[in-house]
Structure formats: C-alpha cells, structure tokens
From TrEMBL:
InterPro entries, per database record: DSBA-like_thioredoxin_dom, ScsC_N, Thioredoxin-like_sf, Thioredoxin_CS, Thioredoxin_domain
This protein's name: Thioredoxin domain-containing protein
Domain of life: Bacteria
Organism: Methylocystis heyeri
Membrane-spanning intervals of the chain: none
Amino acid sequence: MKLTRHRLTACALAFLGASAFLISPQARAEEFSGAQKMDIERIVHDYLVTKPEVIKEAIEALNKKEKLAEAAAREKILTKDADKLFNSSNQAVVGNPNGDVTVVEFFDYNCGYCKQSLANVAKLIETDPKVRVVLKDFAILGPDSVEAAEVATAVRTQFKGAKFWDFHRKLLETRGHIGKQQAVAVAKELGADVDQLEKDIKRPETRATLEEVDLLAEGLHFSGTPSWVIGKEAIIGGVSFGELKSKIDNVRKCGKATC
C-alpha cells in the first residue's frame, strides 16, 4: 500500500490532537510555546517510528469511514432522487421505454472507455427486448465535451427513442475529439433542423439538464466515465457485456444487481 504525504500528515495531525487532549484543560487553553511544540512533534515522531503499524491502521479506518459515507450518500440519491435518476424528463431513454429493468449510464462523448462500452450497450439492447437504458451526459472531459452534451441535449427535442440512439451511436463512434462542430454535423446528417437546434442549445433547459446530471453524479460519488446504476447498485468504470447481463438477470431474479 502506498501512503501519500497527505494521509501521513493527516495521521500525524490526528495523533498530535490526541496528544494535546491528554494535556490538562488549562494547558490546552493556552497557546503552546515553541519548545512545547517541538516536544510534541518529537513525541509524535518517536511514537510513529516505534509503531509504524498505527499509520496503516489509521488509513484503513479512514478508508472504511469514507466508503461508508459514500454508500450512505449513494443510498440517499437512489431513494430521495430516484425519480430524477430513472425518470427525468431531461434524459434520453433507449431500448424498451417500458422495460422491466433500467440501466443508467453516465458517459462523456470524449471518453475512450465510453466508446468501448458502446458495443456492450448496443448488444444489450439488441439481445434483451425488456431492458431500458437511460443515457446521462456527464460531460467532464473539458469544454468540447460540454458543447457536445449541449448539442445532444438539444437534439433530444427532435429525435426520440431509436432515432436518438442512432445519433448517440454515430457521435460516439466519431473518430478524434468531439465538440459542437462534430455533434451538429452528425445531427444534420440524420435530418435535424439545424436552425432550431442552435436555438435549443441556448435554452435555459439545456443547461439545467446538464446541471441535474452533475448533481446526481456528485451525490453518487461518480468522478469518471462511464459510471452506471443498475437496480440500486452504483458501478464506476467499464463493464463487460457479461457483467451487465448478469446484473440485469440478478435484478429480475432477486431485485438486486448482486444477489
């Protein structure tokens, strides 16, 4: 396990605080002198050198605490904001809109792993007529990604269902960096009204849609793409077709992505 300087410092400060607590209340109320600070630092140093395993124990406890906090935050989103997550009017739904299991993908049009995952999502839609897929533009890879997401959001006012899926696939399959120019070109090629598209890009609802996704991702502690929600399970990173199918089957079998 690699220990970062930040975590080492945090551990040392925690021990320093514990040492200060052991000093009498009167002493704690007074500002430590330079000599006292040096003594405390020496005590901390000598203790950690003698018992270095304390650092590992502290980091493990911190990791456990952080994971519990993340799990609690995700559970809050999955219950309190479930409607925004699964049924928002601001999202794209492909596959079977009335499917019995919903897969939510947070993606970025410039994400290489999202491009790789496209084939798995496409296969899922083609082979499972009861799956419902929700696509959320989580544009985190720079201004071009934001512009592409804005275009895609505006395109949804003209393209629905399978038509939007065609746009989404073609844009993700576009080589090179993707921004507004590439997204508008794909929309135009598929028959979008470009003049109306330019107007819709500037609508406040477009920005509100992307902000909604950002808030959901923040609550779910998603920091990268692709990220997924299947059932009530949050998953970060690329997922194989087999894994996607297995989790969907589990939801049908026991109501959870992992039985």
